[in-house]
Design a protein that fits this description.
129 residues; mainly alpha; de novo design (two linked rop proteins)
Amino acid sequence: MKINKFEDLPIWKLALKLTKKIYDFTSQPKFSKDFKLRDQIRGAIISVSSNMVEGFEKNNNNEFIRFLRISKGSTGEVRNQLYVALAVGYISQEQFNEVNKELEELANQIGGLIVYLENCRSNGKFKIR
């Protein structure tokens, strides 16, 4: 499958879906009043998709890989903040489990794309578009 625009990336679509879920959580009354955590987790989840796009749009696969790594790191940051939200009672265990699992899956998919791109580079087939 050839990817010509970032909107075609399945990982971008999943990141956008998770962004909506995080915004839904952080809009709840108790969570929304914790400005620091609310803004931190929103910034981190936005960073996931934003870094995918920034790397993709540079039209340089080395840069794409670099930004995918940043994106993957941001998924870990969001997961950590979800643990905090769970610990202080802003989200339920069920909400945590669902979104944490999806974030783990997203991180695995990002990691898989990084490995794929690195393998393509070593085989001389190193262009996503």
